[in-house]
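stage 2 :: seqdesign
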């Protein structure tokens, strides 16, 4: 039986990938290293202690002793000039000056632009006021809980998968096509009986074949290392990942459409990927950006993918409920591929 040209081209793409240790590492290994680093950095270890400096003086030891009874505060006893310097350097959040006698008011110095500094001021004042005899008029009780999928690592892992799929789709497509063009292989291939569409399609098919492995490796590792669980359907996660990778690949074709050398392709891929890594909620929420840019951010393909995947992984949502993100990915996939095919040069 004659081997299908499309099958042969797809297998060639897979062999090219597996022969490059660097490509394998950046596709599978690098996201795991990022998961370890950020998972450890933001692991559950209770609320961070707020550093407070008590300025040396007649009442310093008394005030420091009271504040050290507060578990949320890390208290240091420092001279006035040293405390001021450390406050300017943001090494401490708050300085407490008790004055020369009990009749003097306690002076708090802090930067009001820092929310954690305002929090340290409230915590310190609450402790000192209670020690002085203040009582609450209402009885209260604290109940703390960690919501399902509410940890930073739970939020981060879907974003890392989006980053991984976007990088793989763009680099795996653009780099290999431009390398073939630079070596004059595209021109030779175009002269053969091969269908040109099959050549380009082989990159998409080869990339999709690796997606289930990427998803499995990342989520199995995250589960074993940090207890990350997929609250929704595993099939929905896999289907969305395949669809997202297909959509991203169109951008890879655009980057490869006319670039004549790998340096140009490198710049184009970075131009497409790096802004999305920053804007689209990979490492921190895109809500940090001003409101007037939010519609633009939400329309980016990586934002749509991360939003849908987080709803499925962390909230247990169904794939069918993610109509808006799926529509955005569909538009990007179709439009980018159409534009790329019109722009593509075989020489």
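stage 2 :: out
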């Amino acid at each position: 039986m004659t081997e299908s040209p499309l099958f042969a081209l797809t297998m060639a793409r897979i062999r090219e990938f597996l022969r490059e240790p660097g490509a394998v590492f950046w596709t599978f290994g690098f996201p795991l290293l990022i998961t370890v680093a950020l998972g450890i950095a933001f692991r559950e270890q209770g609320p961070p202690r707020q550093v407070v400096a008590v300025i040396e003086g007649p009442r310093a030891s008394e005030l420091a002793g009271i504040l050290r009874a507060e578990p949320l505060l890390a208290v240091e006893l420092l001279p006035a000039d040293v405390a001021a310097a450390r406050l300017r350097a943001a090494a401490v959040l708050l300085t407490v000056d008790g004055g020369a006698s009990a009749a003097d008011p306690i002076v708090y110095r802090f930067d009001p632009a820092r929310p954690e500094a305002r929090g340290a001021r409230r915590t310190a004042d609450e402790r000192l006021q209670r020690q002085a005899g203040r009582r609450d008029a209402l009885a209260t009780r604290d109940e703390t809980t960690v919501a399902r999928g509410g940890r930073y690592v739970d939020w981060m892992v879907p974003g890392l998968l989006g980053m991984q799929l976007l990088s793989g789709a763009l680099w795996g497509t653009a780099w290999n096509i431009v390398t073939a063009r630079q070596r004059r292989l595209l021109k030779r291939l175009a002269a053969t009986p091969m269908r040109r569409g099959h050549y380009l399609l082989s990159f998409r098919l080869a990339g999709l074949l690796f997606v289930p492995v990427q998803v499995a490796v990342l989520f199995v590792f995250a589960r074993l290392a940090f207890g990350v669980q997929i609250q929704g359907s595993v099939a929905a996660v896999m289907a969305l990942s395949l669809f997202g990778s297909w959509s991203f690949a169109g951008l890879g074709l655009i980057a490869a459409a006319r670039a004549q050398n790998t340096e140009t392709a490198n710049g184009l891929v970075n131009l497409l990927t790096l802004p999305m890594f920053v804007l689209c909620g990979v490492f921190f929420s895109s809500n940090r950006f001003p409101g007037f840019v939010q519609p633009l951010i939400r329309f980016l393909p990586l934002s749509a993918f991360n939003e849908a995947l987080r709803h499925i992984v962390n909230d247990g949502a169904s794939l069918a409920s993610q109509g808006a993100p799926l529509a955005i990915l569909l538009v990007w996939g179709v439009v980018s591929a159409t534009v790329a095919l019109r722009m593509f040069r075989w020489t």
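stage 3 :: structure notes
- The mean pLDDT is 83.
- Residues 51 and 180 are 57 Å apart (CA to CA).
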